[in-house]
Write a structure and sequence with these properties.
There is one protein chain. The chain is of the alpha+beta class. The protein has 13 helices and seven strands. It is 48% helix and 18% strand. The chain has a four-stranded antiparallel beta sheet. It has a three-stranded antiparallel beta sheet with strand order 4-6-7. Helix 10 crosses helix 11. The protein is globular, with a radius of gyration of 24 Å.
Amino acid sequence: MTNISAAMVKDLREKTGAGMMDCKNALGETGGEIEAAIDWLRKKGLSKAAKKSGRVAAEGLVAVAVRGLDGVAVELNSETDFVARNADFQALAKNIAEVALKTGTADVEALKAAEYPGGGTVGDAIANAIATVGENMTLRRAAALHVGQGFVGHYVHNQISEDLGKIGVAVALESNADAQTLAPLARLMALHIAAANPLAIDSASLDPAAIARERAVLEGKNEGKPAHVLEKIVDSGLKTYFKEVCLLDQPSIHAEHENKTVGQAVAEVAKTAGTPISVKAFVRYALGEGIEKKEADFAAEVAAARG
């Protein structure tokens, strides 16, 4: 009996886009011969996904799931918005979010390998959906939040179905205040994060590379000024930058927090509650951000078709 290694299964999956168990079965049926296994999968109609894998998938849905002190967000992409409005695709996105919540998995590859409801893996479910629908689909990213004590709130913008939409936010507040205090604050913060798109909680948690880039820009703009003047200009410019990109430094978008930063609004609620409240983590996914979409030139396509 041929020994089927994990490397062989991985190689066949990459070549065909078929599910892990299907690849393992194909290799078993063909004595470990890759090309024969590819043909076996083709005959079974299980390698259709591979034909779609080169196509850009920038539509789809962001799914958010929250339970107790845990929250997750995942982005499942499709090629068209039409597929994203399909009930089966929506169920797939929701189920993947639930798997991520259950396992606490934020690593995409680990999530693909996790057990999917009804059998198989998440990766198998995606491959089967690709073969059924005829469009490329990609589990692009996932994030998980946890707080030991407090509350995890969320918000989904442009919601197409419950907890499915174009922008998904989850935010974790750490505190021993009760849920009646924390829930409305978490909701307002999730709404703010969706609208204001902060990069980090505060300047201490901001990517040092982002700060270095901003510093370089400020120094470049003020090149030639005396060193002591340049230092003051850069310090002032960085403070302005932090107000733009750091959650707690941003002016709150909510009328009830008029003329307050998000940090001041949190401190105000904490003072009323008589106990500290801190923002431990947040995630904000906007559908397709960073994906370069191929713009179709319809006239060129028609001309090419005519020869």
